[in-house]
Amino acid sequence: MWTHKSWQGRLVAHPLPSHERLRHYAGWCNAVEGNTTFYATPTRETVASWARQTDPDFRFVVKLPKVITHERRLGDVEEPLREFLDAIEPLGPRADALWIQLPGSFGPADVAALGRFLHRLPTSHRYAVEVRHPSFFDDSHSISALEEVLTAASAEWVPFDTTAFFQSPPTTDPEREAWTRKPRMPLRTAALTDRPIVRYIGRDDSARTVEGWQRWIDIVAGWLREGRSPTMFIHTPDNVDAPVLARRFHDDVRARVPELDPLPEPIPVEPLTLF
User: Fold this and answer.
1) CA quadruple 239, 240, 245, 246: dihedral sign
2) Tell me, what's a Pfam family for it (predicted)?
């Protein structure tokens, strides 16, 4: 996601043509979740536009289409997978990881299917898997079986931290909507690879979002000291200040790990003048 109505004219210039929107987002953050690819595989021309708007070290975590993960549940997917991999090829090194988000019904009995799917994937990409079945969080045998399959494929397990969001009842309309849609996920903080990916959702109250991410400051700083290169995505139900909050999280981590590079400077919303 790199466009949001509430950002226009406040965090990014408005109006912006479609081929400039990602470039302005990339002035705030150096990574993005590619959610739109879940609903439809983009054209190569569209993906080439994304590449032109970003530097080679910008990170895309691109979600596999739902026809692969949810409809066919990783079986008989050769054609849609081929089309997807061909479409994202223009990203080159920007495709930091291909994100395999699995439905809540995808449980321990399906781990073998996941293993076969990962084994068939090209080694030219990194892969990150997000699971939502409760057994992968409260059953030690299921956890070990999944970790074994992911480790064999050098794939990461993506935690989706919703614990701060579900800590108390919703107070805004976006929170109430998210309350019925977001999964209540147990906390997971372990990393399997040198490129961990975390998804975190706080509250529309920025202070509560910051309070809820404090544990991740220590975890991410620790990963960096170990030589890992984590990617952290910060969300709120309304996402009004998500880029600002992401930069604040980065600054909080950088206060612990000063050698961490700063984020880029945002493109000014209004032209700079001398007066």
Assistant:
1) positive
2) DUF72
Same domain (yes/no): 91, 217? no
11 plus 137 within the same structural domain: yes
In a domain, 264, yes or no: no
- State the chain's mean pLDDT as an integer: 96
Dist. CA 246–CA 224, nearest whole Å:
17
Is 25 contained in some domain? Answer: yes
Backbone conformation region of residue 9, classed left if phi is above 0, alpha if psi is from -120 to 50, else beta: left
Q: How far apart are CA 151 and CA 221, in angstroms?
A: 23
The total number of structural domains that make up the chain: 2
Q: Residue 98: beta bridge partners?
A: 62, 127
The pLDDT, as a whole number, for residue 213 is 98
pLDDT tens-digit series, residues 55-112: 999 999 999 999 999 999 999 999 999 999 999 999 999 999 999 999 999 999 999 9
Say whether both 141 and 183 belong to one domain: no
C-beta of residue 150 within 8 angstroms of C-beta of residue 156: yes
pTM across the whole model:
0.95
Paired with 129 in beta bridges are: 100, 157
Q: For residue 217, give the nearest of 186, 195, 248, 187 by alpha carbon.
A: 248
Res. 1: pLDDT tops 80: no
Statement to judge: residues 94 and 115 lie in one domain: yes
CATH number of domain containing 58: 3.20.20.410
Residue 249: give the domain boundaries.
159-259
Task: State the pLDDT confidence band at 271, using cuts at 50, 70 and 90.
Answer: low
Convert the pLDDT of each residue in 213-252 to its tens digit. 999 999 999 999 999 999 999 999 999 999 999 999 999 9
Enter the tokens of residue 9: 């004219």
In a domain, 165, yes or no: yes
- Cα separation values, 270 from 7, 8, 273, Å: 14, 12, 9
